[in-house]
Amino acid sequence: MLTVAEKQNFDMLGIAFAAKDVAMMECHFKQNGDRVPVICIAVREETGMLMMPVALLLTFDPFENLVPPDGAETIDINQNKERPGSL
Fold it and tell me: CA of 45: how far to CAs of 5, 18, 48, 51, in Å?
């Protein structure tokens, strides 16, 4: 189940998209240096812009690597290999 903070981040992201205050940025994980694309909310400050990361973009095929939560409808990954926008 999503936490209150996760839901608030999602709502904040929707507001930022509506205001066109969203950007993509390449970051790296501290632990291993692996590259990760992130979605940021651009916050205007006196001295410039603060990029506040709020979401990671998947760098793998979610249909091959993720499972839905308990009780959710499962996805048959073999049923339709041609998915729009699949990685």
Answer: 24, 19, 5, 10
| Residues 67, 73, 77, 78, CA torsion sign | positive
| Gap between the terminal Cα atoms of the chain | 26
Nearest to 60 by CA among 35, 29, 27: 35
CA atoms in the 13 A half-sphere facing the CB of 26: 3
* Chain segment 52-77, per-residue pLDDT in tens: 999 999 999 988 888 877 756 665 65
Considering only CA atoms, which of 23, 87, 85, 20 is closest in space to residue 50? Answer: 23
Determine the Cα–Cα distance for residues 87 and 70; give it in Å rounded to an integer. Answer: 25
